[in-house]
Amino acid sequence: MKKISSLLFCGIFLAAALQAASPSSQWHVTKETTLGTLPGNASLRSVTLEQCDQKGLCQQATVKALLFSAAFFHLQLLDVPARNQKLSQVMESAGCVAGINASYFHPNGTPLGLVMTHGKVIHPQERAKLLSGLLLETRDNIFLLRPTEKFPKNIKEAVQAGPFLVDHAAVVNGLETTHTAWRTFIATDEHGNCLMGTISPVTLAEASQVLLAVAPSFFKTTKMKRALNLDGGSSTALWVRLEPTPFSQEERGYVRNFLGLRQKN
């Protein structure tokens, strides 16, 4: 009798677990819009997703991001120690075609973690739980790596940030589940394609799930390999030089540095 009761309990528990993991409780795409393109086959898209629980309560998230290839574009870290310019101003004056806000910084404006541009270190690498990933760029490619992994040679641009939101084409477990905020991210596949953009207010755990769910809308024929969280919240910003009117999601306040996108010569 006890054995039957145990089996019955396990069956009920398994059914509940399967129901909780059913597609209705997962993020799914509800709307996709192409906002514009750049020479070099870079595309800015807005994708809205929805997740509903078993009680029918739903929440939405929107990802706005630019997909580009490292074969045709390169990133440049643009440092603004005075913290007196907005992303759009910095991108326009630097002649970039797009950009996002970059790494974390202290209240006094001092960078947090590794910051490098044109091969020159502006701030050294640091060890901290938050700084679990690095964006590194050489002349030929863009990498998202952990501090313990082997770095490529001849690094020209670098930003230390974190946490990883997607790793090995899977969600990252153990991410924070209570604090909701705007997110800035950069993601890569295994073929030199990169995605940089923003996510409307979600937790870090939700951001991980959202990016994996939205990946096919951007990486049409490949998988999103990794995605790294950059400085979010009030720092979140995205700018793209669309014609005739640039797209601009402006940050609230001023940040220390930005990642600008340039076409390769």
Protein model, in words:
This protein is an alpha+beta fold and 265 residues long. The protein has one domain (24-263). 16% of the residues lie in helices and 40% in strands. It contains 3 helices and 18 strands. The protein has an 8-stranded antiparallel β-sheet, covered by helices on one side. Strand 6 (115-117) and strand 7 form a beta hairpin. The longest helix is centred in the N-terminal third of the chain and has 19 residues, at 2-20. The chain is globular. The N and C termini lie far apart (77 Å).
Give the ordered list of helices and strands: HEEEEHEEEEEEEEEEHEEEE
Distance between the termini: 77 Å
Helix content: 10-25%
Radius of gyration: 20 Å
Seen as an oligomer or otherwise, the chain set is single chain
Number of strands: 18
Q: Shape from CA axes?
A: globular
Give the rounded overall mean pLDDT.
Answer: 91
- Uncertain segments are 1-24
Largest sheet: 8 strands, antiparallel
Question: How is this fold's topology laid out?
Answer:
Blueprint: H1 2-20, E1 28-38, E2 42-52, E3 58-69, E4 73-79, H2 87-94, E5 98-101, E6 115-117, E7 120-123, E8 133-137, E9 142-145, E10 157-161, E11 164-167, E12 170-171, E13 181-188, E14 193-202, H3 204-218, E15 226-229, E16 238-240, E17 247-249, E18 257-263
Give a short synopsis of this structure.
It is built from three helices and 18 strands. It is α+β, with helices and mostly antiparallel strands and 265 residues long.
